[in-house]
Amino acid sequence: MSSTTRERVLRHLTAVADLQPPVQKTGKAPYPTEITSELFRAYTRSPHDVGGEFDVPCEWTEEEHEAWGHRAYVTTECLAWRGAWCAEERRRMQNVDLGTTQYLGLPYYGRWLLSAARILVDRDHVTLTELINKIDEVKKRHEPAR
Questions:
Q1: Domain 67-141: top CATH class
Q2: How confident is the model over 30-41, as pLDDT tens digits?
């Protein structure tokens, strides 16, 4: 039975969503004899590993760069220059270690910032409480005046 590229991509994304839903579902893992080729592919491929993959056609448009993306890039590069992490660590944390939901749901530089926050907390450069307090402080600073 022949299927279109769009149908194959949709089946793959559905299989991945069943394996890693945004909200954890209870249930049991399938027995090895129950794993179809689509489930096997969903288990073994990370979301950023798209080499040789089919994709649905999309319209390319040139977009204005957002200032926060530039600031995120500069911040994370400064962390690397200061030795907080290396490029390979960053790539692994922002591509491989994220699940499909976060990988597809966050903007490109949003994944960079999430990885930076994780590494800063993991390496005890800041505590999670300090990070949350600073985020709240910055949010308040940028709230519109009432």
A1: mainly alpha
A2: 777 887 887 777
